[in-house]
Design goal:
The protein is α/β, with parallel strands linked by helices. It has one domain: P-loop containing nucleotide triphosphate hydrolases (Rossmann fold, 3-Layer(aba) Sandwich). It contains 10 helices and 8 strands. Strands 3-4-2-5-1-6-7-8 form an 8-stranded mixed beta sheet.
């Protein structure tokens, strides 16, 4: 059985750390590229190893890996720094120069707040999916371990709600200012701070437009994530207790968010033939876990990939993995 991702423009490959997500994502991307698809493979895992699998140095900008195939590794720290620099510039436009130091301090504190990296990473992923998706037929995301991925995929709703709240708060403040203005008895032309207030309103209009742009971006990204004709989520595991438990939780969580899970890749299956007493005992345990996987995930298609004698690295080794993922060549 082959992975059923035909026609999907966005493919996520996720699972517990250390089960072979990166190798699987790389093999999927190479197979698609050699099938004639313009493909981009993206690592969102902070512990990047995508470049290692392809045996090249990858960064934040796409690099050619093979015909029709480009790859990049997102840097969450650099993304946060870039994002917060923009926030500083926007906030400085709203305050007196005496407050610049405090603005910088508060923004730098935000840099270490929970969720800062996820938010910055999500924005870049959303840009790739929405704004830059037209440059490629398929984008394959090599995602962080499952828990981080699920938080990442739930952020569009959270951040859209936050943006809505901030804009509503500002609009209520503007309404209150209008009421106070009408009640005021003075008809003198505004001076000094009042003129600064109007300039601040103009600046906020720019910030509001930026927030609305980001809100639309997140909504568009979420729409793509939930469209089973566009997005496929593939989970990778190995036949061991902890990966099975985590995969079970991941499937439940992804279904709860209505994100389409198309199948499993069960990795590192022991080869057929005599193995010796130690590995035969391991194979007996593996067989029990494979039966458990069949029972727990009977509604999901499943592809099994054997344990290779050597580490997977380079295009030839990735093609061999791809032959197991797509045995019919589809």
């Amino acid at each position: 059985m082959a992975l059923d991702i035909a026609g999907r423009r966005i493919v996520f490959v996720g699972g517990k750390g250390g089960v072979g997500k990166t190798t699987t994502a790389a093999a999927v991307a190479l197979h698609l590229a050699e099938s004639g698809k313009r493909c981009l493979v993206v690592s969102t895992d902070p512990a990047h190893s995508l470049g290692d699998v392809f045996q090249v140095q990858l960064g934040a900008e796409p690099r050619r890996l093979a015909p029709n195939l480009q790859g990049l590794e997102l840097d969450p720290d650099a993304r946060v720094e870039e994002y917060l620099a923009n926030v500083k510039a926007s906030m400085r436009s709203l305050v007196h120069p005496d407050m610049y130091h405090e603005v910088d301090r508060q923004v730098e504190l935000a840099c270490t707040s929970p969720g800062a990296e996820e938010a910055a990473m999500l924005e870049r992923m959303s840009e790739l999916m929405v704004a830059e998706g037209a440059d490629y037929d398929v984008i394959v995301f090599d995602t962080a371990p499952t828990g981080q991925t699920i938080r990442l995929l739930s952020l569009p709703e959270i951040m859209a709600a936050w943006t809505d709240g901030l804009i509503r708060h500002r609009e209520k403040s503007d309404e209150m200012s209008d009421v106070i203005g009408r009640l005021s008895k003075t008809t003198a032309r505004p001076k000094g701070d009042d003129l600064s207030h109007f300039e601040s309103d103009d600046r906020f209009s720019h910030i509001r437009a930026t927030l609305l742009r980001r809100q639309r971006l997140f909504h568009q990204a979420r729409h793509l994530l939930l469209d089973e004709a566009v997005t496929a989520f593939v989970l990778v595991l190995i036949p061991e207790r902890l990966p099975i438990l985590e995969t079970e939780r991941a499937v439940e969580a992804l279904h709860r968010f209505h994100i389409p899970v198309v199948g499993l890749v069960v990795n590192r299956i022991l080869p057929a033939g005599p193995l010796g007493p130690f590995l035969e005992e391991r194979r007996a345990q593996e067989s029990a876990y494979l039966l458990q996987i069949d029972g727990l995930f009977r509604r999901l298609s499943q592809v099994r990939v054997p344990l290779f004698a050597k580490d997977v690295g380079g295009l030839d080794a990735l093609r061999e993995v791809g032959r197991h993922l797509f045995p019919s060549g589809n």
